[in-house]
Write a structure and sequence with these properties.
This protein is of the alpha/beta class. Helix content is 41%, strand content 15%. Helix 4 packs across helix 5 (93-110) and helix 5 (93-110) packs parallel to helix 7 (136-148).
Length: 240
C-alpha cells in the first residue's frame, strides 16, 4: 500500500509539483511550503533569543510588555514579501500556519517564552474578515501555540472599529487611527495569565501596542508579550 501511495505521490508531483512559496521552485520530497535553500537564507532577525532587542525597545515607555519579538525582516520586492502577501491577501492560510509553526519552534527553543499560557491572534474587524474569509493571524497563532504547547484564544479580544489602512499615515496619525479600536469582551479568560499577542507584520507597532494596552487594561493581573512574524528594518533602526 505504501509503495502504491508513493507511486501516486510521485506522479502527482510530476503533474502538479508543489512549489516554494518564496522562490517558486518545485519542492523536493520532505520540504513543506518553503524550500530548504530559502529557509537557510531567510532574513531572520534572531530577536526571539534576545530579551533586549529592537522590537522590545519599540515598546519601552509605551506599553509594559514582558517580551517582544519579530521572526524575519519584511523585505520589499522579495519572495518573502510575496509569501506574506499570499497568506494575507490571496487565501494561502496554510502557509500562515506553517510559518507560525516554524516561528513557534524558535520561540520554544529560546526559553524566553516558556511561561506563555495562551496565544491571542490580532483580531480583524468582522467586515474585513468576511471579505477576506479568514484571519491570517489566527493561523500564525495556531502554528506558534502548537509548538509552545498552549491554546489559542480567538474570542476574548475583538476589533470594534474597522480602521483605515495605516500604510500612508504619519506616525502620529497611525496612533490616533487605532485609538479605541480594540475591546476585550471576556477579560476573565485572560486575567492573571501570560498572553502572547500574535500579528503578521509590525511596522511602527501602533496597532499591536494599542491592542496589548487594551488587554492589560481590561484583564487584571494579565501579562502580555508580542510576536510579529515580520518587522520593518527601517522602523527597527536596522541597516539593510
Amino acid at each position: 500500500m505504501s509503495i502504491l501511495s508513493d507511486f501516486v505521490h510521485d506522479i502527482a508531483s510530476l503533474l502538479f509539483p508543489a512549489r516554494c512559496a518564496v522562490c517558486g521552485e518545485p519542492l523536493a520530497r520532505g520540504e513543506r511550503t518553503v524550500c530548504t535553500f530559502c529557509r537557510a537564507t531567510a532574513p531572520l532577525t534572531g530577536y526571539w533569543d534576545e530579551a533586549d532587542n529592537p522590537v522590545a525597545r519599540k515598546c519601552w515607555g509605551l506599553v509594559p510588555v514582558e517580551r517582544a519579538s519579530g521572526f524575519l525582516f519584511f523585505v520589499h520586492a522579495s519572495g518573502w514579501r510575496r509569501l506574506i502577501h499570499g497568506f494575507k491577501y490571496r487565501g494561502a492560510w496554510r502557509t500562515a500556519r506553517e510559518m507560525g509553526t516554524w516561528y513557534g519552534r524558535h520561540l520554544k527553543q529560546s526559553g524566553l517564552y516558556d511561561d506563555v499560557e495562551v496565544v491571542v491572534p490580532m483580531p480583524l474587524h468582522p467586515f474585513r474578515r468576511c471579505r477576506r474569509g479568514y484571519n491570517q493571524s489566527e493561523y500564525l497563532a495556531e502554528g506558534i501555540a502548537s509548538q509552545l504547547g498552549v491554546g489559542v484564544d480567538r474570542r476574548s479580544v475583538r476589533r470594534r472599529r474597522n480602521t483605515p489602512s495605516q500604510a500612508l499615515k504619519s506616525r502620529r496619525d497611525r496612533a490616533r487611527n487605532v485609538e479605541g479600536a480594540f475591546a476585550v469582551r471576556r477579560p476573565e479568560r485572560l486575567a492573571g495569565r501570560h498572553v502572547l499577542l500574535v500579528d503578521d507584520v509590525m511596522t511602527t507597532g501602533n496597532t499591536l501596542l494599542a491592542c496589548a494596552a487594551e488587554i492589560l487594561r481590561a484583564a487584571p493581573g494579565c501579562r502580555v508579550s508580542i510576536a510579529a512574524f515580520a518587522v520593518s528594518r527601517h522602523e527597527m533602526g536596522v541597516k539593510e
